[in-house]
Design a protein that fits this description.
There is one protein chain. The protein is of the alpha+beta class. Helices cover 34% and strands 22% of the residues. The strands form three sheets. Strands 1-2-3 form a three-stranded antiparallel sheet, with helices on one face. A two-stranded antiparallel ribbon has the order 4-5. Strands 6-7 form a two-stranded antiparallel ribbon. The termini are far apart. InterPro entries: DNA-bd_dom_put_sf, HTH_17. This is Helix-turn-helix domain-containing protein.
Length: 130
């Protein structure tokens, strides 16, 4: 289920238990709406090609176009989207500590869902103690 509701500083998206607030401040509205729609498209788009274009009729923000998120990711994709270096992924594979991956031939591919499940499984809740 996907729920979108207005909150004081923007719009709240609740999708699959994940809650995100998209701030609608001047100069950021187009990007926020784009990000919100991209998240909705990701939830809906399994197997469907979705294209989103957001324009600001007042001309205050630049237009933004998005293509659907890729379902399979290589090391460069992961580094660009999640900031995890390719070398770290390689180390994780060598030590058997990383996310599941596919290796068709010489290429290494991670399924987005598996990679994000791996990240969620490694969330550390802070206790405030050193």
């Amino acid at each position: 289920m996907i729920t979108i509701e207005s909150v004081q500083n923007g719009v709240l998206l609740d999708a699959g238990g994940r809650r995100m607030v998209y701030e609608l401040r001047p100069g950021r509205r187009t990007q926020a709406v784009h990000d919100l729609l991209a998240a909705v498209a990701t939830e809906l788009a399994s197997g469907i090609e979705v294209r989103i274009e957001v324009l600001d009729p007042r001309g205050q923000d630049e237009p933004i176009t998005i293509r659907p998120q890729k379902r399979s990711l290589n090391a460069d994709d992961i580094e660009a989207e999640y900031g995890i270096p390719a070398r770290t992924l390689e180390d994780w594979r060598a030590s058997g500590k990383g996310p599941p991956y596919l290796k068709p031939g010489k290429r290494v591919i991670y399924l987005r869902e598996d990679f994000e499940d791996f990240l969620r499984a490694h969330i550390v809740a802070t206790t405030g103690r050193g």
